Amino acid sequence: MPQHVFKDQPNKKKINALFIIIPLLFFHSAVSFYILHNSKILRKYDEGMYISRSIVFHQMIIKKEYNKIVDSLLTIGGTSHSNLFSFIQGLILTSLSKAGIKSIDWTVLATNFFFFLVLLLSVYKIGAILYDGGLGIFSAVVISFCPVIFAQGRVSMLDFPFAATLSLSFMFLLQTRNLRSLPFSILTGILFGLTWLMKEAGVVFILPPLIYYSLNSCVTKEHRALRMTNLLVITALFIFIGGAVYFNPRNINNFEICRKLFWVYPNNFGSLYYLSCIPFVYLGAIFALFLLPLIAARIINWKRADLFLSSWIIIPLLIFSFASNKNARYLIPVLPPLILTLMQAIGDIKISNRSKRIYIFV
After folding, report:
1. Exposed, middle or buried, 263 (CB in 10 Å: 0-12/13-18/19+)?
2. CA distance linking residue 93 with residue 145, whole number of Å
3. In the chain, at which end, N or C, are there fewer CB atoms within 10 A of the end residue's CB?
4. pLDDT score of 349
5. How far apart are CA 171 and CA 308, in angstroms?
6. Which of 124, 129, 112 minimizes the C-alpha distance to 32?
7. How many CA atoms lie within 13 A of 80 on its CB side?
8. Which of 289, 297, 310, 246 is nearest to 80 (CA)?
């Protein structure tokens, strides 16, 4: 792995992270609440559908119709997505209702607050594992101010929660210590399955880093049998949990629906659409002025790039670039590795750590 670039005292890393992450959470929530409170825009199309399904789950939870809940979770509705996200939002709606807060806006804010917490903690921890705790903190700060994160933090859509659960899954994969830990392998397999259920295209994001990490871990002879066993555990849980829905005979038509949505659905965007989104939609124009030179530097000095993060970015980017159905939010899951890569590029600059921190916070 690349050398560490920011140095913090080990016993202060988690404290520093919480002191920064918690204010970020409340800042985002306050901004989103202000916008929603003054918004007159009707929630419609996909967002309206997810909210409607969440209300249905809320009603089933209140009535204790557990058989119906399980049946709904195992069934794909009118779209190609499972109902896992709507179920989670339904649980949050139920909790708020019992507390006397009966509001769709508050439900959406609370749901995104939860997933935003997951995202920031995951990005921080991934950065700490691959590089250093300080880099992880800075990565969490930078990703929290990306325009697409602000935009998705107040809507009821799949892509932001999916990015959060994907990041959490990879965080636990790295915690397996090159597939040597059985408990973390079990958690990783479960999270991969749930992430896949969050969005059917999850396999496109999960498989490249998983394959790279597995090959890199199993290439050494030491503890190879243990590593292979843990890899089988991860794979089995991943397929079992996701397959419970996607391989369910009642959902057999879902593969054809996905094929049409992914490859046949008409779209006017070209193959460079997602690359054009990076400076303005994902990073933002101001961030881009500072960070795009680092992208160019990282491409030129590609040997310094982390292949785990690179596989998380490049393979989905290529696949989605040639898909017919394009939307900027579809590639939100590549934002965490992109930010981590850029923060590492800043770490490679031969200036003092104090200057690097100033550069990031500007």
Report:
1. exposed
2. 27
3. C
4. 67
5. 12
6. 112
7. 15
8. 246
pLDDT of 20 reads: 86
Report the alpha-carbon distance of residue 102 to residue 126 in Å, rounded. 36
| DSSP symbols for 2-44 | PPP-S---GGGHHHHHHHHHHHHHHHHHHHHHHHHHT--PPP-
pLDDT in tens, 288-327: 777 667 766 666 665 556 889 999 999 999 999 888 888 8
3 state DSSP class of 247:
coil
List Cα–Cα distances, 267 to 225, 257, 259, 326, in angstroms: 47, 16, 14, 7
From the list 230, 208, 218, 231, the residue with the least C-alpha distance to 309 is: 208
Alpha helix ranges (H) inside the chain: 13-37, 45-62, 66-73, 84-98, 104-130, 133-144, 147-152, 159-175, 182-198, 202-218, 224-246, 254-259, 273-277, 285-300, 307-321, 335-348, 353-361
Task: Say if CB 312 and CB 102 are below 8 A apart.
Answer: no
